[in-house]
Amino acid sequence: MARITAGVATSHVPLLGVGIDQGKMDDPYFKPIYEGYEWSKKWIAEEKPDVIILVYNDHASAFDMNLIPTFAIGCADEFQPADEGWGPRPVPPVKNHADMAWHIAQSLILDEFDMTIINQMDVDHGLTVPLSLLYGQPEAWPVKVIPLAVNVVTYPPPSGNRCWMLGEAIARAVESFEEDLNVQIWGTGGMSHQLQGPRAGLINAEWDQKFLDDLTADPERLRHIPHIEYLRETGSEGIEMVMWLIMRGALGPNIKELHRHFHVPASNTAVGHIVLEKEA
After folding, report:
1. Statement: residue 280 has pLDDT above 80
2. How far apart, in whole angstroms, are the C-alpha atoms of residue 2 and residue 51?
3. Are strands 255-263 and 182-188 parallel, antiparallel or unpaired?
4. Is-contact 7 53, C-beta < 8 A?
5. Please, which pLDDT band fits residue 220 given cuts at 50, 70 and 90?
6. Which of 30, 94, 69, 54 is nearest to 189 (CA)?
7. 3-255 placed in CATH 3.40.830.10
8. What is the percent of the chain where pLDDT is above 90?
9. Which of 12, 125, 261, 273 is catalytic?
10. What pTM did the predictor assign?
11. Residue 142: cis peptide before it, omega within 30 degrees of 0
């Protein structure tokens, strides 16, 4: 059967995609950010996952105010990079494991999660930047990717606890898929940042570091953080961290931290990254 073996969390700051696309990875501003992913690039080259369930949020590329799904899963065979106003990123199309995606969608819906099934959408930096950070610039992504989009743009977003429970349900779905596959689940977005208003540029490094600590030390605390605390402590866009809890919920109670990276700032954003291994 398929099995989830590891979880990855990372910020998906669009500027990091620009730095890679424009060959600026060794520039003084960018270098310390990308250096934190060197360990992870070597690790994933050794792990060679067959499928990544990539949890991200769309930034008005595939969805807008006319259609706001709380949870959406992509079930088509492939997805093209989105044009976010300056042309699509020069990255390969995302190849899906459509059979597994449909299986997960069915399993989640029967498990009483109201998923929106998407068969046509372009994927923006929320999905492509994390892939670039760990896989670089290949001609084709060496892994199948199942996109799972979460609304953290328009209130009300789902609670951290609901996201955690979705992760648990995803784990059950994966384990019931009969093909022998090495599956990873990634949670993206965050960490603390606010992009507009009088608090634009807000970064709360102490809160972010505690969040990273408690992914292993006290995950029960994380699943019950209220929306107002994310807003107050981490800025209007910090709510993206609930997507990390989908990843963490899917891993189960026994995990080991393999790698961590935290850097401030990157385009007025705190960059966080962690790799967690599921233990038997």
Report:
1. no
2. 10
3. unpaired
4. no
5. very high
6. 54
7. yes
8. 97
9. 125
10. 0.97
11. no
